[in-house]
Design goal:
The complex is a heterodimer. Chain A is an alpha+beta fold. Chain A is 26% helix and 19% strand. Chain A folds into 2 domains: 37 residues; 144 residues, no CATH class. Chain B has a domain of 205 residues. The chains are: A alpha+beta, B mainly alpha. Bound molecules: iron/sulfur cluster (4 copies).
């Protein structure tokens, strides 16, 4: 082996060792900021301001964000702020009276004067219209959540990028929901 | 991060508590702001034995599955290493890569991948409060270690972005050297900016402009779909355009691969200069023997080399000052900076504009001072980060200048370790050591 060749070989292995060493150091530092848990995206319902971007900005179409109902908060009202269009003509299930653009809320009579409201998630597009209505006129029991059976858990959630109220946050995969009622903000 | 401990008893107790509280409150106050949670209407007391339904909580992918992903990655890398270094089989590399494309691309939807992992690691190292998951860290680090030992094995078969481009190579054209060199700088620049934008907690530009993720998910916004399709269309002629001229992870892999301890080689033994592999690499990653007389460094070359090397420190300082000086421009992408800029410039917008951001800001209890303070903090992070990014870019330009005037004598055909993806195509063309070929091992000696 010529002198030049062996010198080259020497430089190469020195560089290789320093690259390996830097990579190991970087790994070590990062380990200090890592957890065994996986992280998933979720909406903090107390921060969400029902802007409507959840419906339009998810990489999935329809969005992986759906409306959920915290039944333990609901008043079971006949006159539901989340269900009925503000200027509704009559209090029946006709589509023109409903706030939801896809008629995704099912209204069921329980006993006088109470009604149960249930979201049909295959219809819901996560537009937050009902959430807005329910928060403004009702108990705020309707709210948005990322549904993990649909969500692809993007490295950076496309909704988090545009949410005006920073409501889309990362939570540990062991507790993947922030459902109102059981959950109260810190 | 809120911890949610949900047990049935807990939530009922809490609710009764909440209810009594709210009922008492309701006696005194009129329902106020819409954003706070409030129980305006008490929960009914049902007579008919109606039971409260539970709110559905479909689980995310089972925990532990990430370990499985990781195992798949390690297996694919190990198997491919063996294939290109020992077994020398392009066919098996191909099928392994198809498997990885199906698994990491179409089944796992292209997330998480080491390319994007660059950003998670940067944000965890430089940003405040970002927590990595170990899987992401492992995904980022493992292919790099493998590259240090065996070359860009990850690119050969494990990267879904690379493989999908590899499959559409039909009529690769040779690109002129200067064009390859120039475009080859883009990955490093992209890497630098990706780290800056991630480290400042602004956004993940690699994920945002990933042209193929939409294809893996079978759905993307219109502009991203166009981008993905045009990359694939271009890839018919310009092999692996994303890998060669954009991929920021590829920039790191390239450096690691140059210094790898082992690397696949075109020929299993000694090159006999038969030229059969000359056109076999679609990525122009094969270095040819060069004419020593024509390529010998002249005195002028030598002087230029000294000059360029001396210029490197100057370039680093100039770059650092220039990029850091443009911190205002660079930081505009950050939502806080953007909003603060708008409102400071025209405070009237606070009351007139119907922009969602402004309306939300006005409804929150954040004041303009708080917003401006946050924005200033972000800007100063950009200013600091700008020094490093600028220095890095200066170094990059300096090194690529010196490269133009360095020559290395070469008498055989060999792979360029930085550019080679270890795909194994060229191995098939090399006749050396193949029993049914005239250049059989025994009479090999005559040629070498
Ligand atoms: S983008 Fe944010 S504020 Fe808008 S609906 Fe979704 S979570 Fe709520
Ligand atoms: S992580 Fe991706 S799929 Fe899930 S809600 Fe956000 S954008 Fe939609
Ligand atoms: S109004 Fe919007 S968020 Fe509510 S149920 Fe209908 S689609 Fe879903
Ligand atoms: S293995 Fe051969 S054909 Fe494939 S990229 Fe490397 S040099 Fe080119």
């Amino acid at each position: 082996m010529s002198k030049i060749q062996s010198r080259r070989k020497f430089i190469r292995s020195i560089t290789r060792y320093s690259l390996g060493f830097s990579l190991a150091a970087l790994t070590g530092f990062s380990l200090g900021k890592a957890t065994k848990s996986e992280w998933v995206w979720q909406i903090d319902p107390f921060k969400c301001t029902s802007c409507g971007r959840c419906a339009t900005d998810c990489v999935l179409n329809p969005s992986a964000v759906k409306c959920v109902h915290a039944y333990d908060l609901c008043g079971y009202c006949d006159l539901c702020g989340g269900y009925l269009e503000p200027g509704h003509i009559s209090r029946d299930t006709a589509a023109e009276n409903q706030l939801c653009p896809t008629a995704a809320i099912e209204r069921r009579f329980i006993e006088a004067p109470y009604y149960e409201y249930k979201i049909k998630e295959d219809l819901c597009i996560g537009c937050a219209k009902c959430v807005e209505g329910c928060t403004a006129f009702g108990n705020g029991s309707l709210h948005l959540q990322v549904r993990h059976n649909l969500c692809t858990n993007c490295n950076e959630c496309a909704i988090a990028r545009v949410c005006p109220s920073d409501a889309v946050i990362r939570v540990k995969a062991e507790v993947p929901y922030l459902i109102k009622g059981g959950f109260t903000p810190e | 991060m809120p911890e949610i401990i949900k047990t049935a008893g807990d939530s009922i107790r809490k609710n009764i508590f909440l209810l009594t509280g709210i009922l008492l409150l309701l006696l005194f106050i009129v329902p106020g702001s819409a954003s706070a949670q409030q129980q305006r209407f008490p929960m009914p007391e049902f007579q008919t034995g109606y039971e409260l339904p539970d709110t559905d909580r479909p689980e995310p992918r089972a925990p532990g599955m990430e370990i499985f992903d990781l195992a798949v990655l390690v297996l694919v890398l190990a198997f491919t290493t063996w294939l290109v270094l020992k077994r020398r089989s392009r066919k098996l590399v191909f099928w392994t890569s198809v498997f990885a494309l199906l698994y990491f691309g179409f089944y796992r939807n292209g997330c998480i991948c080491p390319i994007g992992g660059v950003q998670n690691v940067s944000l965890a190292l430089f940003g405040d409060g970002y927590i990595l998951s170990l899987t992401v860290l492992a995904f980022f680090v493992i292919p790099l270690f493998v590259t240090l030992f065996a070359g860009r094995i990850f690119c050969a078969s494990a990267c879904p972005l690379g493989v999908i481009q590899d499959l559409v190579i039909i009529k690769p054209v040779k690109l002129p050297q200067w064009l390859q060199r120039t475009l080859g700088l883009i990955p490093f620049i992209f890497l630098g900016f990706a780290v800056l934008y991630a480290a400042t907690g602004t956004t993940f530009i690699i994920c945002r402009y990933d042209p193929f993720v939409g294809i893996f998910r079978m759905g993307a916004s219109f502009s991203m779909a166009i981008l993905g399709v045009s990359f694939l269309a271009a890839g018919i002629f310009v092999a692996r355009p994303y890998c060669r001229f954009l991929c920021p992870y590829g920039a790191i892999l390239r450096v690691f691969s140059i210094f790898s301890s082992r690397h696949m080689s075109i020929t299993p033994e000694e090159c006999i200069n038969c030229k059969l592999c000359e056109d076999s690499c679609p990525f122009d990653a094969i270095d040819y023997p060069n004419d020593e007389k024509k390529n010998r460094a002249t005195k002028a070359d030598y002087r230029r080399f000294v000059f360029y090397s001396a210029a490197i420190p100057v370039l680093i300082i100039a770059g650092a000052l220039a990029v850091s000086g443009s911190y205002k421009l660079l930081s505009k992408v950050h939502p806080d900076v953007y909003l603060a800029n708008l409102l400071v410039e025209d405070p009237g917008m606070m009351y007139e504009s119907d922009m969602t951001e402004i309306e939300t800001f006005m409804a929150s209890d954040r004041t303009l001072e708080m917003l401006v303070a946050d924005a200033t903090e972000v800007q100063s992070r950009f200013r600091r980060g700008g020094y490093y990014l600028g220095g890095f870019l200066g170094l990059l330009i300096g090194l690529s200048l010196t490269q133009q005037v360095t020559f290395r004598k070469r008498t055989i055909y060999e792979v360029n370790r930085g550019s080679c993806y270890s795909c194994g195509r060229c191995m098939e063309y090399c006749p050396v050591g193949k029993p049914d070929h005239p250049y059989h091992k025994e009479d090999n000696n005559n040629h070498s």
